[in-house]
Design goal:
The complex is a heterodimer of chains A (334) and B (106). Chain A has 334 residues and is an all-alpha fold. Chain A is built from 13 helices and no strands. Helices cover 70% and strands 0% of the residues of chain A. In chain A, helix 4 crosses helix 5, helix 9 packs parallel to helix 12 and helix 11 runs antiparallel to helix 12. The two termini of chain A are 32 Å apart. Chain B has 106 residues and is mostly helical. Chain B is 84% helix and 0% strand. Chain B has five helices and no strands. The longest helix of chain B has 26 residues. Chain B is flat. Classes of the chains: A mainly alpha (334), B mainly alpha (106). Chains A and B meet through helix 7, helix 9 and helix 12 of A and helix 3, helix 4 and helix 5 of B.
Chain lengths: 334, 106
């Protein structure tokens, strides 16, 4: 009894499945009618006159389709162009476009301590925007995980998953001649460049998003060139979740603290540093690191989930491929 | 016109050509590669418009990561209509399965 209850709760069995006949009289009638109409359609399809008229309608429909497509395209681009014409002119002396900008340009370095004014804007004045963007990435990763992840619970759901893992073990490029060699030469440069962009965001162009994207691309190259198993050694799902959570939580708490202190006219005790030095800009450097970690982990997670449906060694490959050797429609082992 | 303006106009023309041809090309692989080229040209345009921050991000995300994701998806959806070498590999590596089938026949 207990066993049955447990399996019912987990959704494996439905105890009421055989007891209830949910199809009503109307359903049966409808099905019978459907059958008759299908037979009629089959008979009509073979008639040459009907075929001719169907072809004519299809041709006409294609013409109409083309016309509607062109008209909607043109009208949509007209609407967009009209909207663009309403924007303030590029570099115009327009108060609503220049007031905030001039404030940022004049007082930006003094107030944020960042030489790169873009970093000062997105990670100081408008830091909550960036927090929201990081959460969008995080949500996107969760959605991809829901759709594509293969874990122990749904391993037996279909040929689809089996194919994903099998093709991944076959198309392993780590035995290729070119890719690992090029990877060995390029990877240090890509990763170093990414880290440089990330850490120097307050002084030169770059910052969390771009640096994180470059590091994520480097990690993708790493896992493509040296095999997924090598990448699994340092990045597991647990670590991935941990990095994302800790970064987002740190970002929210740190920025919340700064905004709370600033709004209430209190001293925030975070030194601004001399503009131009690596340790300048107050909270910008740690926030950059947090955003960069989230972005790079998300990029790598996308790739990993698209490629084989898991981050890290989630699925035991050997047992998986031996379990699912039969294809639907193929011969079944007796 | 300065050299910079000529270069900008040239790049914008290439951008429009890329954007239109992404839709016109029927082969999905070519379409993805054109899309990546579009992103790359866009990155250069961002740098010409003096916003290198966006340029770096566009080059890394648009021309790099999203292109890779498109290619991964293409690899997955193409398996039905193309010859799949993984099938051959499986047949080669599974002698026990064949043996069991032969046993059934016998």
């Amino acid at each position: 009894m207990k066993e049955l209850l447990r399996s019912w709760i987990e959704g494996e069995t439905d105890p009421l499945e055989d007891l209830l006949d949910t199809s009503t009289r109307e359903d049966q009638d409808r099905e019978a009618r459907k059958k008759i109409s299908q037979e009629k359609i089959h008979r009509l399809e073979k008639d040459p006159k009907v075929q001719e008229s169907v072809e004519r309608v299809r041709k006409r429909f294609r013409k109409i389709y083309l016309a509607v497509a062109i008209i909607s395209c043109i009208s949509l681009s007209c609407v967009l162009l009209y909207t663009i014409s309403l924007l303030p002119r590029y570099g115009a002396e327009n108060p609503r476009a220049t007031e905030v900008v001039s404030r940022y340009v004049e007082k930006g370095i003094e107030e944020t301590g960042a030489v790169n004014i873009v970093s000062g804007m997105i990670l100081d004045y408008r830091a909550f925007d960036t927090l929201g963007e990081s959460h969008v990435l995080f949500t996107a990763l969760i959605c991809v995980m829901i759709l594509l992840r293969i874990d122990r619970k749904n391993q037996r759901t279909g040929y689809e998953d089996y194919y994903t893992i099998r093709s991944d073990t076959y198309y392993d490029l780590s035995k290729d001649a070119i890719l690992p060699l090029i990877g060995r030469i390029l990877l240090p440069c890509i990763l170093l460049y990414g880290i440089y962009i990330l850490l120097n965001g307050q002084n030169s162009p770059g910052g969390g998003f771009s640096g994180g994207a470059v590091i994520g691309a480097g990690m993708i190259l790493f896992s493509a060139a040296f095999g997924m198993k090598t990448a699994d050694r340092f990045l597991t799902l647990k670590l991935c979740n941990m990095i994302t959570f800790v970064s987002l939580a740190f970002y929210a708490f740190a920025k919340g603290y700064v905004f709370f202190m600033g709004a209430n006219g209190l001293e925030s005790h975070i030194p601004k540093g001399t503009p131009g030095a690596i340790l300048s800009g107050g909270m910008i450097l740690p926030l950059d690191i947090a955003v960069g970690l989230v972005v790079s982990v998300t990029m790598f997670g996308f790739y990993s989930l698209f490629r084989r449906g898991s981050i890290g060694m989630d699925v035991d490959y050997e047992s998986f491929s031996s379990k699912r050797r039969k294809r639907p429609g193929g011969k079944k082992k007796s | 016109m300065t050299h910079r303006e000529i270069l900008t106009i040239l790049l914008l023309v290439i951008l429009i050509i890329c954007a239109v041809s992404v839709n016109i090309i029927t082969d999905l692989l070519q379409s993805v590669i054109t899309f990546m080229a579009y992103s790359f040209v866009m990155a250069v345009v961002w740098i010409l418009m003096e916003s290198p921050d966006l340029g770096i991000t566009e080059a890394a995300v648009g021309a790099g990561v999203s292109g890779i994701l498109f290619l991964m998806t293409l690899k997955k959806i193409r398996r039905e209509d193309e010859h799949d070498p993984a099938d051959e590999m499986e047949e080669r590596e599974l002698p026990e399965k064949e043996q069991s089938n032969e046993g059934e026949k016998a």
